[in-house]
Amino acid sequence: MEILKKYDHWTWERISRHIIYWLAWSVFWITVNNLISHAIDLADGNSVLWQWIAFEAVVLPIKIGSAYSIAYVLMPRFLYRKQYITFFGLSALVILFFTILLYFAYAYFVHPIIFSDTDSYTVAQFTYRGIELIYIAALVVSIKFFQNYLFEHQHNQDLVQQKVEAELKYLRNQIQPHFLFNTLNNIYGMVLSNDKNAGEAIVKLSNLLSFMLYEGNTKAVSLSKEIEMLDSFIELELLRYRRKLDFTFSKNNLSPTLKIAPLLLIPFVENAFKHGPAEEEGQSFINIQMESQQKILHFSVENSFSRNAKKSKNIQSGIGLDNIKKRLKLLYPDRHTLEISKNETFKVSLMIEQSAS
Prior knowledge:
The protein is α+β, with helices and mostly antiparallel strands. It folds into two domains: 12-157, no CATH class; 195-353, Heat Shock Protein 90, CATH 3.30.565. The chain has helices spanning 12-39, 49-79, 84-114, 123-192, 198-214, 223-241, 266-275, 319-331, and strands at residues 221-222, 246-252, 259-260, 285-293, 296-303, 336-342, 346-353. It has a five-stranded mixed β-sheet with strand order 2-4-5-7-6, covered by helices on one side.
């Protein structure tokens, strides 16, 4: 049974929780009153345990009625709606009403019947019983208020998490069509040029689509799976650019336990192919390096580019890179660094701190 749980209606589980609370309350006061009565020889030493049990049986429903009237009737209708004056005014009337009931309970049941006490019930005792109801109700209201605060806090956290997940899904869905559009264009060009590797390219694309379908929507995949996906993409691109590209992909000390968000690295590689060999007619290169140190992943992509190409000025503003920056901020806040430089070459350096599992 959860200690803090939200209920929409009164189920048996909820009722049992309240019964346990009031039973614990009653047992505590029965024990305390019985011990005190024997210690000070109250009621001429005639007070016994059953009398305190009967006493609690009479006054407890009145205490519960006052506390619940405020916590479950007045609080939702007035306090939560910030109608403070109405709430405190009606609460005072509720306390007064149940204090009168408690007065009659003491005057006509507790003293004359249970304890055989014929002493009159004074105004001071009436005032004390009112104060007793106030602190009992205040305790229940405080518990209820604290529970609602925790529920509201959890609800707000859930909303934030849902917003983050929705934004990540939106960004991820933007990346995938963008990647597929470029890849299909490449294969279409190979088919038009009667490239014998077009069939192999289609097979590799099907492997990539399989990864996107089954792994792309998960929160994290093993680093090895992400690398397999990168390898398939790279092989697909190399079918087109192999004759005019000096390509290297080094992988050093990669931890088999590291995990990473799926499709996180491919925009950097795709960007290198798009603005490297696609824009260079002469010798061009792409150098990819990946290594891990304990829980930290280092990933870098460096490629040549043409300074005179029309699109070179937009290298850092492509859809893929813009989206990946947003994804990194959402997925790894304060646990990543991303550096993009464009000097003689275009270079992306990424560091991600990721827990091993």
